[in-house]
Amino acid sequence: MANKPGLVAPGVNVTGVYPNNEFGTMTGTSVAASITTGACALMLQWGIVAGNYPELNTDRIRAFLIRGCIRDEHINYPSN
Predict the structure, then answer these.
(1) Cβ atoms of 9 and 36 closer than 8 Å
(2) Tens of pLDDT along 20-53?
(3) At residue 26, what are phi and psi to the nearest 5 degrees?
(4) At 5, is the secondary structure helix, strand, or coil?
(5) Mean pLDDT in residue range 3-32
(6) pTM score of the predicted model
(7) What is the distance between the alpha carbons of residues 74 and 16, in angstroms, rounded to a whole number?
(8) 73, 69, 72: which is closest to 6 by C-alpha?
């Protein structure tokens, strides 16, 4: 079975704040997952809490995220 992710998030050399309030770079799936989770939380807040899109759900968020992806023409997909 081939790898076929719906979307990928950056996970290499991402600048952020460590728990001790110092800036640094981080790499790994935990960084990519955190970025994606934060984006989903902001979308839920905008859609449901602020009342802009009360029907928003996880399937629709996934569709929005995938539609917002941009393929890098210099990378062969899937890239293990």
Answers:
(1) yes
(2) 999 999 999 888 898 899 999 999 999 999 999 9
(3) -130, 155
(4) coil
(5) 86
(6) 0.74
(7) 26
(8) 69
